[in-house]
Design a protein that fits this description.
The chain has 263 residues and is an alpha+beta fold. The protein is built from 8 helices and 7 strands. The chain has helices at residues 2-9, 25-32, 75-80, 147-155, 160-170, 181-205, 226-241, 250-261, and strands at 15-17, 39-43, 50-51, 87-94, 98-111, 119-127, 136-140.
């Protein structure tokens, strides 16, 4: 799917932010080795096998070229090493929309496992100086990305579990009254695509139109949900197609009255 999206968008930069289930070497290699790579940001295991890039190959060397170089310490080892040089970073809008200070260390490496393709990555190891958050590691296939950019990219991801819940509640996924498996395979992707269209259209319309939020006497809604976005898009489409009023134009009104009088 991402290869097809790359064909559609040409040379436009694409960054995919995903959870740890997408930290798979086959997947990362297939999208990062394209002529115009699709960069991926995801979590990385602390015990992942990291290596240096393979050394330059001598012209007279016999045998298969090396895929990786010297083995590097695991991120878990770096986390426990007292000589690791940590740097401080303050991020705006971290989890809970608060400003939070983290310590990080980052390098480039080659992630490799026997039988799978090697993938060059930039890894970022993060720890909480206050000890309230568990240490985490992230990877990015864009070696030029900064640690701050990688962390903000990952923070901006949309959790897929929320998407599944919203499309089931408001768009009818898994509740289709269809008996054919082929029909279900067609409608489910279409409804998931509809979710994306509603979100994108809401983002496009929001600066131009007021975004009403339902309020009650005991609850004040601070941020819109997908249900609000769906109602907002429906209202816009209905108003533009069904509830249009006559133009406020004297020439238009005069012409209409003359036509009714038979002039």
């Amino acid at each position: 799917m991402l290869v097809q999206v790359r064909r559609w968008l040409g040379n436009r930069p694409i960054v995919v932010v995903a959870d740890s289930s997408f930290a798979a070497l086959d997947f990362l290699a297939s999208v990062s080795h394209l002529p115009h790579p699709v960069h991926v940001v995801t979590r990385l295991r602390l015990d992942a096998a990291l290596y240096k890039p393979p050394p330059p190959r001598d012209a007279h060397t016999i045998g298969r070229p090396r895929k990786v170089g010297q083995r590097l310490p695991t991120l878990k080892t770096r986390l426990e090493d007292s000589t690791t040089r940590w740097q401080s970073l303050t991020l705006e809008g971290w989890y809970g929309q608060q400003t939070y200070t983290l310590e990080w260390v980052s390098q480039t490496a080659v992630w490799y496992h026997t039988g799978l393709p090697p993938v060059p990555i930039r890894w970022v190891l993060v720890r909480d100086p206050l000890g309230q958050l568990e240490p985490q590691a992230f990877l990015c296939t864009d070696l030029e990305a900064t640690p701050a950019q990688i962390l903000l990219w990952f923070r901006h991801r949309w959790q897929v579990e929320v998407t599944f819940q919203e499309v089931r509640t408001h768009l009818g996924v898994e509740t289709q009254r269809q008996w054919s498996d082929l029909a279900i395979r067609r409608t489910t992707p279409a409804l998931l695509a509809l979710f994306s269209l509603v979100v994108l259209l809401t983002q496009r319309l929001h600066p131009q139109f007021t975004f009403p939020l339902p309020q009650t006497a005991w609850y004040t809604k601070q941020r819109p949900t997908f249900a609000d976005a769906l109602a907002f898009v429906r209202r816009y489409l209905w108003a533009s197609r069904l509830f249009q009023t006559s133009r406020d134009d004297l020439e238009y009104v005069r012409g209409y009255l003359e036509t009714r009088r038979g002039v």
